[in-house]
């Protein structure tokens, strides 16, 4: 039997650790861009933004400490993972699977009727309009033990379910950093998550929101409330130009009455435009 010497084992560990560093955020591949602050200030919100150029391995980040070190409830960005687990376990047959409306008329925090939720929906429709009831039912069908298994396998954020199976991603039980959110969508794009290719392809398909001759924009939004009462907003995904992907995460926070649904999209598109996207020239 051939044994690896202590010296060679140490070298292998160093090499493997170096490979991990190459694909992560480090001072050598990060450009902090404080000029992006003006877009947050315009809406009186705080937050962070990260953009990763897969071709060069370079990050552009505003508010690096919040991007790397602070964790937040994922809110509806968790629908990415919920959909993947649902598809993998057969709880969701495909993107056309309908779950019947339970007849409960739901309203948003501002009092508006959630008309896009209050009807029978397919998985794809529910994803596009971020229908919470659909994915709560999916989570109940998945069950706590199976859900926990996949959260542990993915090492998704804190991977904790400390409350109920149909609310842990919206009630501050589960938390994730913006950096981790970016890692998830990057792996999804390249089919590197521990799910079948079919499951990942379906979720990538339903994440596509805009497509034209210049670019393709794929994302999932999220909206929720932190323990301090502040509203939290997310957009996570990627933009493709000339078949080249750039991954992004936007995380914003404001008072309970902040108009984050509008602000997050305006901020995202303003930042992408500042970085020369949408013209098909990247």
**From the structure provided, what is the oligomeric state, counting identical versus distinct chains?**
single chain
Structural class: alpha+beta
CATH level 4 superfamily = DD-peptidase/beta-lactamase superfamily
Poorly predicted spans: 1-23
Computed over alpha carbons, the radius of gyration is 20 Å
E-strand count: 9
What's the structural domain tally?
1
The averaged pLDDT comes out at 91
What share of residues are in beta strands? 15-25%
- The CATH architecture: 3-Layer(aba) Sandwich
Q: Cα distance, first to last residue?
A: 53 Å
Q: How are helices and strands ordered from N to C?
A: HEHEEHHEEHHHHHEEEEH
SSE topology:
Elements: H1 6-22, E1 30-32, H2 37-42, E2 46-53, E3 58-62, H3 64-69, H4 79-89, E4 98-99, E5 121-122, H5 123-128, H6 132-142, H7 144-154, H8 178-189, H9 197-207, E6 208-211, E7 216-225, E8 231-241, E9 244-254, H10 260-274
Helix pairs in contact: 4-6, 4-9
Structural commentary:
It is globular, with a radius of gyration of 20 Å. Residues 1-23 have low confidence and may be disordered. A hairpin with a 4-residue loop joins strand 6 and strand 7 (216-225). A 7-stranded mixed beta sheet has the order 1-3-2-9-8-7-6, with helices on both faces. Strands 4-5 form a two-stranded antiparallel sheet. The relative contact order is 0.16. Helix content is 38%, strand content 20%. The protein is built from 10 helices and 9 strands. By secondary structure, it is an alpha+beta fold. The chain has a single domain (31-274), classed as 3-Layer(aba) Sandwich (Beta-lactamase).
């Amino acid at each position: 039997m051939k044994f690896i010497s202590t010296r060679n084992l140490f070298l292998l560990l160093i090499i493997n650790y170096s490979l991990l560093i190459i694909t992560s955020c480090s001072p050598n591949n990060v450009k902090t861009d404080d000029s992006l602050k003006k877009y947050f200030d315009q809406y009186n919100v705080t937050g962070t933004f990260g953009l990763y150029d897969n071709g060069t391995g370079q990050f552009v980040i505003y508010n690096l400490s919040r991007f790397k070190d602070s964790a937040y409830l994922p809110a509806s960005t968790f629908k990415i993972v919920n959909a993947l687990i649902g598809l993998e376990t057969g709880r969701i047959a495909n993107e056309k699977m309908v779950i019947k409306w339970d007849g409960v008329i739901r309203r948003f925090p501002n009092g508006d009727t959630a008309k896009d939720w209050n009807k029978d929906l397919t998985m794809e429709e529910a994803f596009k309009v971020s229908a919470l009831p659909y994915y709560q039912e999916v989570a109940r069908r998945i069950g706590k033990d199976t859900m926990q298994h996949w959260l542990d396998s993915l090492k998704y954020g804190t991977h904790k379910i400390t409350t109920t199976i149909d609310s842990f991603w919206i009630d501050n039980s589960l938390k994730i950093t913006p950096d981790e959110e970016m890692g998830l969508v990057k792996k999804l794009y390249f089919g590197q998550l521990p799910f079948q290719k079919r499951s990942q392809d379906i979720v990538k398909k339903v994440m596509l929101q805009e497509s034209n001759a210049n670019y393709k924009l794929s994302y999932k939004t999220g909206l929720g409330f932190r323990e301090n009462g502040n509203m939290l907003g997310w957009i996570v995904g990627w933009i493709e130009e000339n078949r080249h992907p750039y991954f992004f995460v936007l995380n914003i926070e404001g008072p309970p009455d902040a108009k984050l649904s509008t602000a997050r999209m305006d901020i995202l598109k303003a930042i992408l435009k500042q970085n020369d996207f949408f013209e098909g020239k990247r």
